[in-house]
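Apologies for my clumsy wording, but can you show me some protein sequence, whichever is easiest, together with the matching structure tokens, please?
=====
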Amino acid sequence: MPPPATDLSTFVAAIAARDRLRHVALPMFVRRRLHAHPGQACPLCAAPYDLAQSRGARLPVVATLIHPALGGPTTPDNAFLCCRRCQQLRAAADLVASVAIPDPLRAQRTAVLLASHNHLLPLSPHTHPTDFAQALARRHHHPRSRVFAAQGEDGRCLIGVSSRFGDTQSTGLARLLARLAGAIVHQDHRLTIHHVEDKAFRTLVWQLIDANTLVVALAHLAQPRDFLDCWWITSASPSALRLRQVGITVPDPARSQSATTPHRLTAGARERLQAEHRVVRRQANILRQAINDQHKTHWLDGLEGNTQDEQRLLDGLLTAETQAAELHRQLKASRDALDPRRTARPLKRHRPWSP
């Protein structure tokens, strides 16, 4: 089990031990099968292969759709051939984040992500397998990225965003969300670490998971309080995730949400709810301003907008607005419970007067 401590130096050392470029070789029979039928051109750049130069940029090489560091499996389905230049430009990023890939590779990527390491979904174990797979696929529309996280027993939480694996857009989104939720406590040329309070951490980590981020747990609570504390659980089996066969008892998400929304709130709980509502509204305003600035820049420069980048910002804005609406509903429900004049009263029916 990961250590319960969330000391900054320990957290940085743990990330340094895991955030390394390791050569992951696919099985030899997979490589031979791919090299036996290389095709005529690279599926990414459409440039013809050059088999004459063994060290040339147009030589076909074996690459993975989802890097194993991002949770991808070392199976034949996760391998394909492309030219050496495209693989060097893409590095370890998700294939969908770099170029416009053809439909066969896109379908292959979808199947690979279903067999990769994924986080839990707030769905019932009785959910139909097809519906569960569709819910996972909605996460997989985003490029796969990776962050490191630690949740301490003392309420101190840390989020580490590294630029070694994943694309620049996903890394930028993770840093933006973490910066909105907490302060930067460590930063170097590759790694940025944010200190986040426990309540904001539980919201942030699930926002990253919904954006197809693999959250690597370096420390977590030994006993989860509710479903949100089960962020660190991953499995490469969709059926195990659906049935919650992950080694521990996973709390029901519906019960955890209803338990944290009482009809009557104490003064301290109400103040914390109001503060969280202000933070979420501020996040929504920042994302809305970023979208407007991006549209204005593209219009002034005469450039076409980046659909994936805009979609990430819009998804983040939708999530923030949804949270703000839910917090507003909870505050209104608490006001109605405290003030009896706000409750609906039945209308009095008077008998018609007759002389």
Q: What stands out?
A: Residues 267-301 form the longest helix (35 residues). The chain has three domains: 23-114, 118-251, 267-337. The radius of gyration is 24 Å. The CA atoms of residues 196 and 246 lie 27 Å apart.
